């Protein structure tokens, strides 16, 4: 290795040019080629100390690290044959450039010289050198709540009406200023990424993302499976305080579940898959392109799932932020559960915040409030609620979590390894 004389500028030149020409998708393939060349070099280096036929190679300082050492011996020999010597320039009289032509880091249709703030680091990271990913998901419960639930008069006093606030960089009541600004700076780095780059960055930040939907229609179903598993099947096999199952498979009550802000319906598909026929689901979500896609349920029958879009029933708009829809959905659930309510409600509301990612928490306030309200309206005593949230540090979100803490026996903030990095 030490004595390997470097070069192969032509090949290097080609390789680099190929890289620059490649689309983003091709990059990983190309880097894998580079690596296999590198591997073969390691394999061959003892037998084939490349370029030994050229005097200058032998003259090289054995300890010198060559900038060409990443190229295989065949390439190095080819270059050597053509008279190339490391340290000399290319060309008949060695008059050409001596430095490696850097691979272009240009992406997509960006200008050649463009620097993306925060992304000046090493672009050709070899991810295969990273350790095998593993995740330990730990469920932490808030301490037991001993505070009485305030009555509605007191709650009314808490209400402050004001202008809609769209600024987040001053929200330091539950987050230190330093942490908040660091967080916002880190998030802003992604603002200049193109769609494909963003997706790749996200996949790299969470290796479990590539599991995708598995046997289900989407990755949300896998997320729910993951959550249910971590919480001891609390959502598919609820138990009483003695640990006895409340909804046994054949005897006993059906599992009644709700799924709001839920299109296309992966969460429900998971529950139905676990319960087979022994469940009944009610769902409400916005009509439109993100509506339920019951015909796409792969793993479970959708007959036991009933979409209901609030006021107007199947003709409603499904918008959970309209109070009349929440009331209609609650009535529908109560009518169909012998007035007992649901064993569990799942809520996964989200919408595009493109261009305003840093204030997603603020933009989602109303949605979060309405999902919490729907849970409190439709769950039976002892029922379970799971809700996807974004950041939770504004007084509004913290206040909502506090209300849940007062209303439920136990509350946990949980990050699943299936959650996409925000
Ligand atoms: C992340 S998706 C839910 C995925 C779902 N849990 C699944 O398993 O397939 C977010 C959903 O929230 C819905 N949504 C957003 N705003 C809503 C609103 N105001 N009322 C009802 N649904 C809403 C979207 O239409 C979308 O279907």
UniProtKB/TrEMBL annotation:
Domain of life (superkingdom): Eukaryota
Region (Disordered): 1-64
Composition skew (Low complexity), residue ranges: 30-39
Domain G-patch: 71-117
Keywords: Methyltransferase, mRNA capping, mRNA processing, Nucleus, S-adenosyl-L-methionine, Transferase
Catalysed reaction equations from the record: a 5'-end (N(7)-methyl 5'-triphosphoguanosine)-ribonucleoside in mRNA + S-adenosyl-L-methionine = a 5'-end (N(7)-methyl 5'-triphosphoguanosine)-(2'-O-methyl-ribonucleoside) in mRNA + S-adenosyl-L-homocysteine + H(+)
PROSITE patterns hit by this protein: G_PATCH (PS50174), SAM_MT_RRMJ (PS51613)
Subcellular location: Nucleus
Record EC number: 2.1.1.57
Function of the protein: S-adenosyl-L-methionine-dependent methyltransferase that mediates RNA cap1 2'-O-ribose methylation to the 5'-cap structure of RNAs. Methylates the ribose of the first nucleotide of a m(7)GpppG-capped mRNA to produce m(7)GpppNmp (cap1).
Name of protein: Cap-specific mRNA (nucleoside-2'-O-)-methyltransferase 1
Organism of provenance: Takifugu bimaculatus
